[in-house]
Amino acid sequence: DIAAYYESIGEKVTYFLCSSDPQSLDGILIEGIKKAIIDGTAPHMKDPVYPVAVERILNLADFCDPIPLKAKKEKIRDLNKQKANAFKRAYSFLRAAGEVEKEIYHSVENDILYTKMESAAYRFCHKYLKEEAVFSEDIRLISAVNHVGFMMLDSYDAEATIVCGVDNSKGLSWLFLREVYRIAKEMNKKVLISYDPLFPDRLNGIFFVKEKICIRVAEEKGNESYEHYINMGRFINKNISGVGKNRIRFAQKCRMALLAGAVEQFGLAKENHMKLESIYSAHMDFKAKEMFTDRFIKQLQLE
């Protein structure tokens, strides 16, 4: 409601989607008035550093009727426990998938043609980009693993005039993106960057703000969707051994099975979350909440 109001009066609002459920928000940033509103509840709890002077806590529990909720506390506890356990299992699967992904890389790292790849990254950057005065970066994540599987949001694509894809069939796109990022720093580019949900040190997308060019992991098969498509197979020695190829295929099957297990557990977590939400919604005074929202918007304008 707050984001919709500020967009209606011409303010730019940045949305931060929940990685577990992109239909929900974890926060918004109203850029013109430099105000942010975030979800400070578990699993991303946030305490004020400068209470009242800078941060305020908004407690939506004030609009819930405590009497019927207390009567359902055992059900609420049970659903919370089931949700937490499902998340725990999902993250265990993701950690295991990450280890398998490392094995895929180790199986081919001695067969990667790094010099050829670095030359291709250099040509890409100098074809599309112009040098700037000062390098700057902001993190804007565009991918997640959740109850619907691996998701690549269109946040970069929607703003880009040119979308470039990097083949990720062998999980090696991050190597090319790492080299593009290194060159971008040398060229003092202003960039937005995104990291792989399994590997927070591996890039999976870069957006060049000045040129409005996006280069990201291409999870889709084929290159028809992209202005420029990087085939990572070009940078792997064609004479890689049959043993190495078999190891990669086996690791890829393991990775997909583990990701499927994580997705299933995220689905169970969401199912329990929706049951909890239904319980709380049934005992919330939405009219009072809407009246508070209107007052809060007016307060924001005065601060």
User: What percent of residues are in strands?
Assistant: 15-25%
Number of strands: 11
SSE string, helices as H and strands as E: HEEEHHHEEEHEHEEEEHH
Radius of gyration: 23 Å
> What's the helix count?
8
Low-confidence stretches: none
- Largest sheet, described in full? 6 strands, mixed
Helix fraction, binned, reads 40-55%
Q: How confident overall, as mean pLDDT?
A: 91
Strand order of the largest sheet: 4-8-9-10-7-11
Shape: flat
Distance between the termini: 19 Å
What class, by secondary structure content? alpha/beta
Task: Report what the structure shows.
By secondary structure, the protein is α/β, with parallel strands linked by helices. Among the domains are: 1-64 and 285-303, no CATH class; 113-236, no CATH class. 46% of the residues lie in helices and 18% in strands. It contains eight helices and eleven strands. It has helices at residues 2-8, 66-71, 73-108, 114-128, 155-159, 173-186, 242-281, 286-302; strands spanning 13-17, 25-30, 35-38, 136-139, 143-146, 149-152, 162-167, 190-195, 203-208, 213-218, 228-230. A six-stranded mixed β-sheet has the order 4-8-9-10-7-11. A three-stranded antiparallel β-sheet has the order 1-2-3, with helices on one face.
